């Protein structure tokens, strides 16, 4: 579903992403780990077409992202670290608007069911977003992905700053979506969640993917050791 | 349509913000007050004018049996009617007179000829509907729209939007519509309110003026969104847009006005009067039988009628000479006023060529023209008053010449002569004439409209 082929991004002399090769299949939850500045966001932004690659290509569902960005938009959903919505609109109205911008029109009861599916408590649906907590806003992001029937989720540290319960709920949502064959690429600093939720893990360092493994192959403490090892070299 | 979804959301967001409610409330209140005050003034002035006009006519008729030349010196007034749409745009009325004294031997001016500011372009600060439309509404558009795109960039919502599928063009067009809708509704309300107060409404004029202002606001709205699209910071966007507002609505009109007056200055009142007096001295004076010109006229007339004495002429030569003198003076006034008019026309030319500098200018000119409160209409009025004066002198002098003998200054015409002098009546130019005279303004406004849309399209590719 998601392919990075020799994907490279240079900012002047700074090699932000160095020859990345990556394959993510439907149902996979691929977690990108790595220190600040390792190139995780750069990778995600290349798949989002927010930036253009210096060389190589990002491919989603056989379509090269920079060649046909409009076609890509139909497939993807993006949740950043801090999903900002329109404060003066309710969660329901925000959902309706953003889904509308994807060219989809739903009845109110359908929209409500997406919010329920994303785990937002029903008292909040009609409240203005300015009264929402961060966790509630991230749930609107998940509801947007569900409503859009996205085949690919691109998540940039979506759970950072969430409390453990909210973080856990978010992971469960991801698992449910992966059962529906959604392919997920998620940047995170949370080793524990990556092991719990992810199917695959990639460790990045200075723009390079230095380690790839399946979460089934490793336990929590070994993962931590491996990660720190890479960071200390 | 996605465009309408964006517009709907923009409006929904606006209606929920306190800032918007306050702003709209203030502008609506200002508009209502402006229209009401203008209406009261309009009615007052109209009543005054109607009363003064009736007064002048009855005073004229009340002279009864009188010497025609006395009546000519007694004189009367030509009044410019108060035009309905001056309620919305009083234009240059402030600088031009509304009445002209019509008498023997001189063409009087309404007090406009040498007024310092010939244009009224830079008139600022009167709470009239045109002030709100020309200055305040654009400010409102800027206040509402300056952060339309920058805010989405600052918050990060633009990133989410960009992953949704809507194109930049659709997004910006939707924002354009969302920002324009409240302004269009407000403009329509202002015009409907004003129309309710206007007597003898001519819909062609009102509708066209409404469209002119809608076009003006569309241009301002596009420029606002262009700036908001290009920039990343709402504060900078606001500052730049305010600077654009100051330049287009204040600086450019003011500069255009001084530039034009410098390039084609009007003579001062003194210069004008001196030039007229100079020319008058050179020619026939109807009251002076001893001047060279008088003697020459005497000879020619005696020859033409093949008589040897003035007494033998079939008419009163005194009155005949006065009519000839009048015709001579009329020609002098005509000549000098033509010069003024030439200056006016040259100025108009310059203004037209400068109108591309700011959409404010063509809008201002069209608005005044449609309201019949521009300088051209005033010139038409002054010309009509002069024509009326000439006709009045002709009627009076002819009666004098045909019904009295030479030297019979005590002759009194029947009172019915006074009503033979028609009442002065001035009609504003009709719709076709106004459109014809404003072709270049319409063209430039249209060019601005299209140009600003083109720029907006370009800006939307850069979001
Ligand atoms: N717009 C930019 N211009 C120049 N350099 C950039 C730009 N964006 C990112 N970089 C550089 O690219 C490198 C990778 O940054 P990136 O944001 O991908 O890191 P990251 O792994 O997401 O880090 P973090 O954990 O802090 O989010 C860094 O060295 C960063 O300084
Ligand atoms: Mg990052």
| Amino- and carboxy-terminal Cα gap of chain B | 20 Å
**Helix-strand topology string of chain A:** EEEHEEHEHHHEHEHEEH
CATH fold naming of chain A = Rossmann fold
How much strand of chain A? 25-35%
Shape of chain A: globular
Kindly give the count of domains of chain A: 1
Tally of individual helices of chain B: 17
The computed structural class of chain A is: alpha/beta
How is this structure best summarized?
Helices cover 36% and strands 27% of the residues of chain A. Chain A has helices spanning 40-47, 69-73, 91-101, 108-117, 134-147, 164-179, 191-197, 220-232; strands at 2-11, 14-24, 29-34, 55-60, 63-64, 76-79, 152-156, 183-187, 200-205, 208-214. Chain B is elongated and about 105 Å long.
Please provide a written account of the structure.
Chain A: Keywords: ATP-binding, Nucleotide-binding, Transport. Chain A: GO terms for molecular function: ATP binding; ATP hydrolysis activity. Chain A: It comes from Roseivirga spongicola. Chain A has 233 residues and is α/β, with parallel strands linked by helices. Chain A has a single domain (2-85, 146-232), classed as Rossmann fold. Chain A is built from 8 helices and 10 strands. In chain A, strands 6-7-8-3-9-10 form a 6-stranded mixed sheet, sandwiched between helices. Chain A has a 4-stranded antiparallel sheet with strand order 2-1-4-5. Chain A is globular and about 50 Å long. Chain B is mainly α and 463 residues long. Chain B is built from 17 helices and 2 strands. Chain B has helices at 2-15, 18-61, 68-74, 129-145, 150-155, 157-162, 168-197, 203-230, 234-263, 269-282, 292-305, 317-354, 360-370, 375-403, 416-420, 431-437, 439-460; strands spanning 76-79, 99-102. In chain B, strands 1-2 form a two-stranded antiparallel ribbon. In chain B, helix 4 (129-145) runs antiparallel to helix 7 (168-197). The longest helix of chain B has 44 residues, at 18-61. Chain B is elongated, with a radius of gyration of 29 Å. In chain B, 41% of the residues are buried. Chains A and B meet through strand 6 and helix 3 of A and helix 1 and helix 6 of B. The complex binds adenosine-5'-triphosphate and magnesium ion (MG). Adenosine-5'-triphosphate binds at residues 11, 14, 16, 34, 36-42 of chain A.
């Amino acid at each position: 579903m998601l392919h990075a082929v020799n994907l490279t991004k240079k900012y002047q002399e700074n090699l932000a992403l160095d020859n990345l090769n990556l394959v993510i299949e439907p149902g996979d939850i691929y977690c990108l780990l790595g220190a600040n500045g390792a190139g995780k966001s750069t990778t995600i932004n290349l798949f989002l077409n927010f930036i253009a690659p210096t060389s190589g290509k990002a491919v989603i569902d056989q379509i090269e992202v920079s060649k046909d960005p409009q076609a890509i938009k139909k497939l993807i959903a993006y949740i950043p670290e801090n999903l900002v919505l329109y404060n003066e609109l309710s969660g329901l109205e925000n959902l309706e608007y953003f889904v509308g911008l994807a060219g989809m029109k739903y009845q109110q009861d359908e929209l409500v069911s997406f919010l329920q599916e994303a785990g937002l408590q029903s008292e909040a649906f009609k409240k203005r977003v300015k009264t929402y907590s961060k966790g509630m806003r991230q749930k609107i992001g998940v509801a947007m992905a569900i409503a859009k029937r996205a085949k690919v989720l691109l998540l940039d540290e979506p759970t950072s700053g969430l409390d453990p319960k909210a973080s856990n709920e978010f992971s469960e949502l991801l698992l449910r979506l992966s059962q529906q064959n959604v392919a997920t690429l998620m940047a995170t600093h949370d080793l524990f969640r990556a092991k719990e939720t992810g199917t695959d893990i990639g460790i990045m360092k200075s723009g390079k993917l230095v380690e790839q493994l399946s979460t089934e192959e490793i336990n929590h403490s070994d993962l931590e050791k491996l990660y720190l090892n890479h960071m200390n070299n | 349509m996605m465009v309408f979804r964006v517009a709907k959301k923009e409006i929904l967001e606006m209606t929920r913000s306190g800032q918007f409610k306050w702003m709209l409330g203030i502008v609506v209140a200002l508009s209502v007050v402006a229209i009401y005050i203008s209406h009261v003034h309009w009615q007052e002035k109209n009543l005054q004018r109607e009363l003064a006009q009736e007064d002048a006519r009855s005073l004229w008729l009340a002279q009864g049996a009188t010497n025609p030349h006395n009546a000519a010196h007694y004189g009367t007034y030509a009044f410019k009617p108060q035009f309905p749409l001056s309620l919305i745009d009083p234009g240059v009325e402030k600088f031009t007179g509304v009445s002209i004294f019509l008498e023997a031997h001189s063409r009087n001016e309404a007090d406009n000829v040498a007024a310092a500011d010939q244009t009224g372009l830079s008139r600022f600060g009167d709470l009239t509907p045109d002030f709100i439309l020309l200055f305040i509404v654009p400010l409102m558009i800027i206040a509402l729209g300056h952060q339309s795109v920058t805010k989405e960039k600052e918050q990060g919502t633009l990133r989410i939007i960009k992953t949704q599928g809507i194109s930049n063009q659709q997004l910006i067009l939707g924002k354009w519509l969302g920002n324009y809708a409240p302004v269009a509704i407000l403009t329509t309300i202002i015009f409907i309110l004003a129309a309710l107060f206007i007597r003898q409404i001519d819909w062609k004029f009102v509708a066209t003026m409404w469209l002119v202002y809608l076009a003006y606001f569309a241009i301002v709205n596009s420029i606002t969104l262009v700036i908001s699209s290009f920039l990343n910071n709402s504060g900078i966007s606001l500052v730049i847009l305010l600077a654009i507002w100051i330049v287009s609505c204040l600086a450019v009109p003011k500069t255009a006005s001084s530039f034009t007056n410098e390039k084609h200055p009007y003579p001062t009142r003194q210069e004008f009067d001196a030039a007229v007096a100079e020319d008058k001295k050179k020619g026939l004076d109807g009251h002076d039988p001893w001047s060279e010109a008088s003697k020459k006229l005497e000879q020619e007339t005696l020859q033409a009628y093949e008589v040897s004495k003035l007494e033998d002429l079939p008419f009163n030569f005194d009155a005949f000479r006065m009519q000839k003198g009048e015709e001579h003076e009329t020609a002098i006034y005509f000549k000098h006023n033509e010069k003024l008019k030439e200056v006016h026309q040259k100025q108009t030319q310059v203004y037209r060529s400068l109108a591309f500098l700011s959409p404010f200018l063509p809008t201002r000119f069209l608005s005044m023209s449609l309201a019949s409160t521009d300088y051209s209409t005033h010139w038409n009025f002054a010309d009509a008053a002069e024509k009326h004066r000439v006709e009045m002198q002709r009627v009076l002098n002819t009666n004098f010449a045909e019904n009295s003998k030479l030297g019979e200054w005590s002759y009194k015409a029947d009172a019915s002569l006074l009503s033979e002098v028609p009442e002065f009546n001035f009609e504003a130019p009709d719709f076709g004439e106004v459109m014809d005279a404003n072709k270049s303004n319409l063209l430039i406004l249209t060019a601005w409209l299209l140009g600003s849309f083109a720029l907006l399209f370009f800006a939307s590719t850069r979001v």
